[in-house]
Amino acid sequence: MTVIEKVAYLKGLADGLSLSDTTAEGKVLLNVVDVLQDMAMSITDLEDAVEELGETVDAIDEDLEDVEDIVYEEDDEDEYYDDDDDYDEFDDEDEALYEVVCPTCGDTICLDESMLCEGEINCPNCHEKLEFDLDDLDCKDDCEGCSGCDFD
What we know:
Blueprint: H1 3-16, H2 24-76, E1 98-101, E2 108-111, H3 113-117, E3 120-122, E4 129-131
Protein backbone atom coordinates (compact mmCIF):
# COMPACT_ATOMS: atom_id res chain seq x y z
CA MET A 1 0.00 0.00 0.00
CA THR A 2 1.45 3.36 -1.03
CA VAL A 3 1.47 6.50 1.09
CA ILE A 4 -1.27 8.02 -1.06
CA GLU A 5 -3.43 4.93 -0.60
CA LYS A 6 -2.92 5.03 3.18
CA VAL A 7 -3.91 8.69 3.34
CA ALA A 8 -6.96 7.99 1.16
CA TYR A 9 -7.94 5.25 3.63
CA LEU A 10 -7.61 7.72 6.55
CA LYS A 11 -9.68 10.27 4.65
CA GLY A 12 -12.34 7.60 4.07
CA LEU A 13 -12.35 6.77 7.79
CA ALA A 14 -12.79 10.45 8.63
CA ASP A 15 -15.69 10.70 6.19
CA GLY A 16 -17.18 7.44 7.51
CA LEU A 17 -17.04 8.69 11.08
CA SER A 18 -18.83 11.82 9.95
CA LEU A 19 -16.19 14.10 11.40
CA SER A 20 -17.35 17.66 11.21
CA ASP A 21 -15.34 20.84 11.16
CA THR A 22 -17.79 22.35 13.62
CA THR A 23 -16.04 20.73 16.60
CA ALA A 24 -12.46 21.55 17.57
CA GLU A 25 -11.37 17.90 17.43
CA GLY A 26 -13.00 17.35 14.04
CA LYS A 27 -11.43 20.48 12.62
CA VAL A 28 -7.95 19.33 13.78
CA LEU A 29 -8.36 15.80 12.45
CA LEU A 30 -9.64 16.96 9.05
CA ASN A 31 -6.75 19.42 8.71
CA VAL A 32 -4.26 16.69 9.70
CA VAL A 33 -5.68 14.43 6.99
CA ASP A 34 -5.42 17.27 4.44
CA VAL A 35 -1.77 17.90 5.43
CA LEU A 36 -1.05 14.17 5.19
CA GLN A 37 -2.60 14.13 1.71
CA ASP A 38 -0.38 17.05 0.60
CA MET A 39 2.68 15.34 2.08
CA ALA A 40 1.82 12.07 0.34
CA MET A 41 1.59 13.88 -3.00
CA SER A 42 4.93 15.61 -2.39
CA ILE A 43 6.58 12.32 -1.43
CA THR A 44 5.26 10.67 -4.59
CA ASP A 45 6.54 13.56 -6.71
CA LEU A 46 9.97 13.32 -5.03
CA GLU A 47 10.10 9.55 -5.59
CA ASP A 48 9.32 10.08 -9.28
CA ALA A 49 11.99 12.79 -9.55
CA VAL A 50 14.59 10.60 -7.83
CA GLU A 51 13.79 7.73 -10.18
CA GLU A 52 14.13 10.01 -13.20
CA LEU A 53 17.43 11.41 -11.88
CA GLY A 54 18.69 7.88 -11.32
CA GLU A 55 17.93 7.01 -14.93
CA THR A 56 19.66 10.19 -16.10
CA VAL A 57 22.75 9.44 -14.00
CA ASP A 58 22.85 5.91 -15.41
CA ALA A 59 22.70 7.30 -18.95
CA ILE A 60 25.47 9.82 -18.18
CA ASP A 61 27.57 7.05 -16.63
CA GLU A 62 27.21 4.94 -19.78
CA ASP A 63 28.12 7.91 -21.98
CA LEU A 64 31.14 8.69 -19.79
CA GLU A 65 32.25 5.08 -20.05
CA ASP A 66 32.11 5.37 -23.85
CA VAL A 67 34.17 8.58 -23.71
CA GLU A 68 36.72 6.95 -21.39
CA ASP A 69 37.04 4.02 -23.78
CA ILE A 70 37.71 6.40 -26.66
CA VAL A 71 40.18 8.57 -24.71
CA TYR A 72 42.13 5.71 -23.16
CA GLU A 73 42.09 3.76 -26.42
CA GLU A 74 43.86 6.71 -28.09
CA ASP A 75 46.48 6.65 -25.33
CA ASP A 76 47.05 2.95 -26.00
CA GLU A 77 47.72 3.72 -29.68
CA ASP A 78 50.36 6.37 -28.91
CA GLU A 79 53.04 5.73 -31.51
CA TYR A 80 55.93 7.14 -29.48
CA TYR A 81 55.47 5.35 -26.19
CA ASP A 82 54.76 1.80 -25.21
CA ASP A 83 53.18 0.96 -21.85
CA ASP A 84 56.01 -1.51 -21.21
CA ASP A 85 58.64 1.19 -21.69
CA ASP A 86 57.31 3.31 -18.82
CA TYR A 87 58.93 6.23 -20.61
CA ASP A 88 62.39 4.88 -19.72
CA GLU A 89 63.90 6.34 -22.89
CA PHE A 90 63.82 9.80 -21.28
CA ASP A 91 65.23 8.64 -17.93
CA ASP A 92 68.82 8.63 -19.22
CA GLU A 93 70.36 11.83 -17.85
CA ASP A 94 73.28 11.68 -20.32
CA GLU A 95 71.06 11.77 -23.38
CA ALA A 96 70.38 15.26 -24.72
CA LEU A 97 66.80 16.31 -25.23
CA TYR A 98 65.68 18.97 -27.66
CA GLU A 99 62.51 21.00 -27.40
CA VAL A 100 60.54 21.62 -30.58
CA VAL A 101 57.47 23.85 -30.71
CA CYS A 102 54.76 22.73 -33.10
CA PRO A 103 53.91 25.68 -35.35
CA THR A 104 50.30 24.51 -35.69
CA CYS A 105 49.19 23.98 -32.09
CA GLY A 106 52.07 25.54 -30.12
CA ASP A 107 52.67 22.34 -28.14
CA THR A 108 56.26 21.85 -26.93
CA ILE A 109 57.66 18.42 -27.76
CA CYS A 110 60.83 16.93 -26.25
CA LEU A 111 62.88 14.90 -28.73
CA ASP A 112 66.09 12.93 -28.45
CA GLU A 113 68.78 12.59 -31.14
CA SER A 114 67.35 9.48 -32.74
CA MET A 115 63.93 11.10 -33.12
CA LEU A 116 65.48 14.15 -34.79
CA CYS A 117 67.59 11.96 -37.08
CA GLU A 118 64.42 10.38 -38.46
CA GLY A 119 63.82 13.74 -40.14
CA GLU A 120 60.12 13.94 -39.34
CA ILE A 121 57.65 13.31 -36.55
CA ASN A 122 53.91 13.74 -36.07
CA CYS A 123 52.93 16.15 -33.32
CA PRO A 124 51.38 14.06 -30.51
CA ASN A 125 48.86 16.84 -29.85
CA CYS A 126 47.52 17.85 -33.29
CA HIS A 127 49.16 15.10 -35.42
CA GLU A 128 50.67 17.70 -37.79
CA LYS A 129 53.70 16.31 -39.63
CA LEU A 130 56.83 18.14 -38.47
CA GLU A 131 59.88 17.84 -40.71
CA PHE A 132 63.47 18.55 -39.70
CA ASP A 133 65.99 19.63 -42.35
CA LEU A 134 69.38 18.61 -40.98
CA ASP A 135 71.29 18.56 -44.29
CA ASP A 136 73.19 21.77 -43.56
CA LEU A 137 74.66 20.47 -40.29
CA ASP A 138 77.91 18.53 -39.81
CA CYS A 139 77.14 14.95 -38.88
CA LYS A 140 79.03 12.69 -36.51
CA ASP A 141 77.38 9.73 -38.33
CA ASP A 142 76.72 7.95 -35.05
CA CYS A 143 72.95 7.83 -35.29
CA GLU A 144 71.18 5.25 -37.45
CA GLY A 145 69.81 6.49 -40.76
CA CYS A 146 71.16 9.95 -40.08
CA SER A 147 70.64 12.46 -42.83
CA GLY A 148 73.30 14.75 -41.43
CA CYS A 149 73.20 16.24 -37.98
CA ASP A 150 75.55 17.76 -35.45
CA PHE A 151 74.93 16.65 -31.90
CA ASP A 152 77.81 17.51 -29.55
